[in-house]
Amino acid sequence: MMWRRFGWLILGVLPLSAHAEETVVPVQQVATQDLTAALKSYEGRWVGHFTIHSTTSGYSETFPVEQQYWWEDGVLHGVAVSQRDVGMSSARSKSVMQDGKYFSEVKAGETVENYWGVLHDGGLIWLSSNLKRTQDYQMKESIVEVDGERVLKTEGFDTYVTGNGLAHLVYRGELKFVE
Fold this sequence. Notes:
mainly beta, ten-stranded antiparallel β-barrel, 179 residues, Lipocalin
């Protein structure tokens, strides 16, 4: 939930096709109790790693990430810290239910990004609230059990412009629940 977008240095992260239009999911209303249960499943401390990969340049980087979530007054609060080659970064998030949908605000320094989330295919898909970005940025988070442990899997993509045209970043993360 915290790592929504790499545009502000990777706070976001699926083996997705390079064609974003094939993975767009419409925002729709879901029962409030399902939304609450999905958000509450994030509560606790998660530790692991993320990998970013550029399909254009071949650049790849794997780095440690720690995220902490807690529920307070109907809001899921989050804090994330990562240690990349360029240094340490952190972000904070607040996720709520608004009009039968998830809404999340992520702050990293002075940068604020907003996202809509929908339940889909066993996880949460996050889309930029900037509707012009829904075709070129998405992220899916799923909490699964692997070898008896809860794991938060994050997969996503972002599109950016280079001198040679459009390029894609693919994000993958795997964080284990530790407390």
